[in-house]
Specification:
By secondary structure, this protein is mostly helical. Helix content is 74%, strand content 0%. It is built from 25 helices and no strands. The two termini are 27 Å apart.
Length: 507
């Protein structure tokens, strides 16, 4: 403790960063994470190659353009890059949580832990992935036409934009963890960023690109009119993040539970299904009573509604993106909840182990509940079918594919999940930091492989045969659910003592 008093802020940040690395090495899912990390690295390598390919295509367009410089062309599409970066951080970047509780009584500055996390987020190697797009483009189109100094300014401005995105993500994720209505904040920000697309007499995508293209010239000339506002926004977001995260963590630490009498529905309609009905009640009441599950569930439904409306009543995502978002709308329930099967149940896992085959009923209840929930995105996307953007056959095929093999993969995570996620605490619990790379890898695969399958198969064998084949695969998995659910149960029981120990240790 005495040595900690003498530490400078920089030394504290380095020490806490070292602690974070050690915690990953001591993680209960270390052996799984090695496989998960390998899959994530493979995905990152594929992403880098994909970005490099796009970079070459953009460079060829820039070199043949006579109306815009290469710098202006890249900044013209910068709003889309900013939006994609922000959204993909929700799938790939850890939440703005920090295991601060062990450090509370130590003689260190109150913002030391928060500063450590913010510093790690700014210096993260993930922020450099976009240079797979920016750097080849600069070499092919900017260096020889604008000069080396202009190229450095161009790359620096782009990097500042990515850092702004990282801090905005951290702020939004922290606020959304507290209250779902904070989704209004990014909605307003992106509505303002994309306003040239829909405001004004000459509104449109051309106007949007032309508006931001002028910033490329400012970047190449190292203009203070661009760099000073970017730096001010970045610093402002960092300062706001410090305050918001500190307030969130300490509010949770000092929060007192208040018990109030409420009328609780008995869900007696499910009594007819016996033990399965009881576990369906447990799933529904878990969503109703526990803050983390409830907020996540509400956020998912809001996201499904927003994407459904965007697909139905705008032309923003017409083309290949329509298929991706349709598949995403169906898969999101599983990718955010089913993939964490047993993590929330880890809080009371001993009770579930009292009677033989209780876990089978639990898994069946989860599967049936989230399979029925697929009707929500299906009904919301009926206008997409009516307007001819997607066929009814494709929509049914995607829904069956999700309820079949996709959900089967998600439920298999019940075998390997062994880290308890708190039911209510969000910032100070042991399971608040997302370091299960297997889950992340499965989520990414579930969100990207089905759209590729639905997009490529119709090109190879025609739409009708492809959609019939996809639907038959889904029906096959649905019809045999009791067999693969039992297989999951048997494999879980072989690991039950190891998982029980890990669930208890991670509470």
């Amino acid at each position: 403790m005495n040595s900690m008093k003498k530490m400078t802020r920089w030394e504290l940040i380095k020490t806490l960063r070292q602690h974070n690395k050690l915690s990953e090495k001591r993680n209960l899912a270390l052996s799984q994470n090695k496989v998960g990390k390998a899959m994530m690295y493979f995905g990152a390598a594929f992403t880098i190659l994909y970005l490099m390919f796009i970079s070459v295509m953009l460079a060829l367009i820039a070199n043949s353009s006579e109306s815009r410089t290469a710098c202006e062309l890249m900044f013209g599409i910068m709003p889309f890059i900013f939006g994609v970066d922000f959204l993909f951080r929700f799938m790939a970047q850890q939440t703005p949580s920090q295991l601060i509780k062990p450090y509370i009584l130590l003689p260190m500055g109150k913002y030391a832990c928060i500063d450590s996390f913010i510093f790690n987020s700014i210096t993260s190697g993930g922020n450099l992935i976009w240079f797979a797009l920016f750097l080849p483009y600069s070499i092919m189109s900017v260096v020889f036409s604008e000069g080396l100094l202009s190229t450095i300014g161009f790359l620096l401005a782009l990097y500042l934009v990515i850092l702004v995105s990282s801090q905005l993500y951290m702020l939004v994720r922290t606020l959304v963890n507290q209250h779902t209505y904070w989704w209004v904040l990014p909605a307003v920000i992106f509505a303002a960023i994309f306003s040239p697309w829909y405001i004004g007499s000459d509104a449109g995508i051309v106007k949007l690109c032309e508006t931001y293209a002028t910033l490329g010239d400012l970047a190449a000339r190292w203009s203070p009119l661009l760099f000073i506002p970017l730096l001010l926004v970045l610093v402002l977001l960092i300062l706001i993040n410090r305050r918001v995260q500190y307030a969130s963590v300490y509010a949770e630490l000092s929060r007192q539970e208040k018990t109030t009498l409420k009328h609780v529905s008995q869900l007696s309609a499910l009594d007819r299904y016996g033990e399965l009905g009881e576990y369906l009640k447990l799933e529904i009441k878990s969503i109703m009573r526990n803050r983390n599950i409830r907020r996540g569930f509400i956020s998912i439904n809001i996201l499904v509604f927003v994407f459904s409306m965007l697909i139905s009543f705008t032309d923003i995502y017409d083309g290949g993106m329509t298929i991706f978002l349709c598949v995403y709308n169906f898969a999101i329930y599983g990718a955010t909840i089913l993939v964490r099967t047993m993590c929330y149940e880890g809080n009371y896992i001993e009770c579930l182990m009292v009677h033989k085959e209780n876990i089978i009923s639990l898994l069946k209840a989860k599967y049936y509940f989230y399979a029925l929930l697929l009707l929500v995105p299906f009904l919301l996307m009926i206008p997409v079918i009516v307007m001819g953007k997607c066929s009814l056959m494709m929509m049914v095929a995607v829904m069956l594919l999700t309820a079949g093999p996709v959900y089967c993969i998600f439920l298999h995570m019940a075998i390997y999940n062994k880290q308890t996620i708190p039911l209510n605490t969000k910032f100070i619990g042991k399971g608040t930091v997302e370091n299960n790379y297997v889950q992340l890898a499965v989520e990414m695969a579930a969100l990207f492989v089905p759209p590729i399958l639905v997009g490529v198969l119709p090109l190879l064998m025609g739409k009708t045969p492809a959609y019939v084949l996809i639907a038959l695969i889904g029906v096959g998995f649905i019809a045999t659910n009791k067999y693969w659910i039992r297989n999951i149960y048997v494999r879980m029981m072989k690991r039950r003592y190891e998982n029980l120990e890990s669930f208890r240790a991670s509470r």
